[in-house]
Amino acid sequence: MSLQQQTLPFTGVEPHRTENLRSDHLLVAEMVQRGSKVLDVGCGDGELLQLLESRGIDGRGIELSREGVNRCVAKGLAVVQGDADTDLVNYPDDAFDYVILSQTLQATRQPKVVLENLLRIGHRAIVSFPNFGFWRMRLQLLVGGHMPRTENLPATWYDTPNIHFCTIKDFVQLCDEINVKMERAVALDLYGRPLRLNLPWWFWNMFGEQGVFLLSRAEKGR
Amino acid sequence: MTNVQSIPSPSIHNEDRAHEADHPTSQVAKFGADQPLKLDCGVDLAPFQIAYQTYGELNADRSNAILVCHALTGDQHVNNAHPVTGKHGWWDTMVGPGKPLDTNLYFIICSNVIGGCMGSTGPASTNPASGKLWGLDFPIITLPDMVRAQTMLIDRLGIETLFCVVGGSMGGMQALQWTAAYPARVFSTLAIACSTRHSAQNIAFHELGRQAVMADPDWRGGRYFEHGTHPHRGLGVARMAAHITYLSDAALHRKFGRRMQDRELPTFSFDADFQVESYLRYQGSSFVERFDANSYLYLTRAMDYFDIAADHGGVLAKAFSGIQTRFCVVSFTSDWLFPTAESRALVHALNASSARVSFAEIETDRGHDAFLLDVPEFFDISRAFLRSAGTARGLKTAGG
To answer: Which segments of chain B does DSSP mark as H helices, in order?
Structure first.
């Protein structure tokens, strides 16, 4: 397969773009401090890594698909073939300033373990995922009576790699459960625009098409 | 059926081969009695020499040097006609103007390994103490010894830090040894189709090859050169067996299938009825033209002993802890001699050391030998890795 050939990302999420850059990537990149060291788990074609490196950030990546890895390496990126579920254990504690999991959480076998690993390897984690509580999802299931499919999640139930969908509300609950501190939370609408900050959680959970969270370890004993 | 062809006697005489070993058609760095090579077996080898080739120009601040490490039966003739066979350089697909190892940008060095037979001191060289060829009197050498010798050459060339150490197979092992032992002297490492240790299966294949050589009566206890013989049959069989391990089932099937060689029907003999037999015999006979049998014993042994983790308490990650070198690790899907799992173990160890590492597995049916062949995806990756490392090193790089 040619290195230039573009395929649907492994996660099966079709992203929004503004000026050729994914809106969630721009938001993630804005959360990362310059000069820091970042691991992008599920880095796909390396688009986010390239954006980060262009901003003076030392980026590394893991990607499951061989085609994706080879495209990244051919761009000069430090990317290795690996699986978020099985390979994060090889990384030492505190190896990175940030570990990013962009649109990949829902495709992992053990999201909770993965999330714990992210915050073991990195001081902070940035996690973005499609919100299954988005009103169009709910409507398709409620009225249509079948598993939801959207422009951004076009795969059918039988060929989707996304096996652990969650809502923004579910994710917040998981963070509480494993004692993770949410430093920043943003919900993006269908067009990749951030929803207003002062809206309540239920509104985000209904109208956020995806959630982007900046997380850190909560202090011990809390 | 008595007239079955075996590997024919080489057309090159022992004397000519010995001449190339002592007086190579290459540049030579000679090290006197005051600069011995300290071998792992405890021997100080002195005097000794290293034969090497260079391509391209060393830049003013001596920062663009790439050391190419050759594989088991390779040599320093990367990109020029081979002085013995007249064939083109073994890596002219990878090294040259505009190639991934671009001689317009980089200064490429390749030296014959210690223990080799193309001009660096080895069993085919003359032992200055006796005036006779070393043969089996030559001390056992290891991969770290080969690399230690290379550091002396690099010192001699006035280069403090290599921009990159590159190699496939045994060459990749040397690249890893360089990086583990001299991390400050290696800015980047491109390790292809290799491993940090030689596996039991690979040791087994090497033992098969060595036994084939030593079972040949013409080997004469390793002193064939004094009897005017050469164990070409044994060495040829060793090469044939090894060559199978460099290919893959799919590649052999694609190239030869069950096709017959210049005949329609089986001859009901042990002649080379099948194309694949004829091909292997050709590989065996062309190899014995250019390679010394004892050298083959020494170099396979050196690979067998190789195990980087063993020198670090059995923990591979310790060999690379705190390393600043940039790595690119490449494996090939159909390589069963150095399978991807070996590269993956290296990558895990490098991750554990937080090293900057790229790792690509290339899909091909061409087996271990893929690293010597025209595989565009592999070239793209090598080129991009060097370009990105070059930018970090502040080198002039192609297209930016």
So the answer is: 14-22, 143-156, 170-181, 200-215, 224-227, 232-246, 249-255, 275-290, 293-305, 316-319, 340-352, 376-393
Helix (H) / strand (E) element for B49: namely: strand B48-55
CB contact under 8 A, B360 and A81: yes
**C-beta atoms surrounding B62 within 10 Å:** 15
Give this prediction's pTM.
0.91
ipTM tops 0.90 = no
Which residue of the set B169, B195, B285, B295 is catalytic? B169
Q: How many CB pairs under 8 A join A and B?
A: 66
d(CA B124, CA B116): 8
DSSP string computed for A160-204 = -S----B-HHHHHHHHHHTTEEEEEEEEE-TTSPBPPTTS-HHHH
- Nearest-CA residue of chain B relative to A81? B359
- In this complex, the residue of A70, A90, A96 whose CB is nearest that of residue B377 is A70
Cβ <8 Å between A75 and B328: no
Task: Confirm whether B22 is a catalytic residue.
Answer: no
Compute φ and ψ for A34, nearest 5 degrees.
-60, 145
Q: Which of B145, B216, B292, B335 is catalytic?
A: B335
Going by C-alpha positions, the residue among B130, B113, B117 that lies closest to residue B37 is: B113
* List of chain B residues whose C-beta atoms are within 8 Å of the C-beta of residue A122: none
A116-132 exposure pattern, b = at least 16 Cβ within 10 A, e = fewer: bbbbbbbebbbbbbbbb
Residues of A at the B interface, defined by Cβ within 8 angstroms: 1, 3, 58, 60, 66, 69-70, 72-82, 87, 90-92, 95-96
Give whole-number Cα distances, B392 to A28, B49, B187, B286, in Å: 25, 34, 10, 43
**CA B303 to chain centroid:** 10
- For B363, counting Cβ atoms within 10 Å of its Cβ (0-12 exposed, 13-18 middle, 19+ buried), the class is middle
Q: What is the pLDDT of residues B33-83, one digit of tens each?
A: 999 999 999 999 999 999 999 999 999 999 999 999 999 999 999 999 999
